[in-house]
Structures are given as C-alpha cells and as structure tokens.
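User: Predict the structure for this protein chain, please.
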Amino acid sequence: MNDNELEFLELSIHKRIKTRITREYKELSNIYMNDKNHRQNNVSLIYDDELKIYKITIIEHLNHTIKNVYTFTFDSNYPFYSPKFQFNNEPYSHYLKMPSERFSEHLKKFTNKSCLCCSSLICKNNWSPAITFKMFINELNKVKKYKRNVVYKMLSDQIKNKYLIDDIEIDAFLFA
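Assistant: Here is the predicted structure, written as structure tokens:
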C-alpha cells in the first residue's frame, strides 16, 4: 500500500468511527437529556486529537447532586474492541469483582454465574461490534441488582442465625 492509500484508509476508518460514535451519542443524549423526571443530566462527547481518543461522559443528577457518572473511552479500534468503561470514576472491571468467596457462592445461587467478569460485555469473548453503550448501562444496572440481592440474602441469613429462626420464610418475602 502506498501513502495515499493508507491515508485514505485511515480517513475512511475515522469517518466510520465518527458516524458510529455520533449515533451512540445522540441515543444517549435522547435518553439522559430528556429525562422524564426533568433532572439536569449531562451528556458530553470529547475528542482528544493528541491522544486520538474519544470520550463520552454521562452525569446523572438526583436532587441537584451527582448520582452516577458513566464514562466510555475508546480509540480507532472501536467498535471492534470494547471501549474502556468507568462507573463513578472507577473501572467497571473493579465493580465486577467479588468481595469474598461467600459472596460468590450466593451470587451463583441467584444468577447461576460464578463470575460477573466472564459474563460481562467487556470480556473479549463476549464483545461484538453490535453492542451499544446503552447495553453497558443496562448490564451495570443488572449487576447492581444482583449484588444488592446477594447482600440482602447474606444479611437475612445472618439474622436467621442470630435469632435461631431458620424456618422463617424471609427469602420468599425479600425475593418474590
């Protein structure tokens, strides 16, 4: 390939990435800027020309305070490689880690998953160019629910053990 062909290829790839990113940005803006509760959410798209990376940041507000911050960072390999996803300024992979073996056991009972990382969209084996940023946020919300339920289960088991009432149907009440 000569220099002109390489330059044309780079411009073509950059244009396709830009089109995809613009579409994703518009979809996220429609969701978060048109919030039914009229919250003052922010959605921004930044391109760093020096590093050649894009960054989409979503800031959700609740009662005039920041509730959640989602950040997607990606380069020219997107959409063929997963973006770097951060939740509240921490890598999403940190959020997927299990705090203990006991926690993992309870998670497996609830979800039939022994590892949240391996079933996540950021895993190389699960990544596909068809995955959108909205899908990441939906997955994060599912993971939050899973983790919350595991904590509730562990606490209810602790209450049952402490007060020696193993036959109480507290699980049916909590997880119905």
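Residues 1-81 form one domain.
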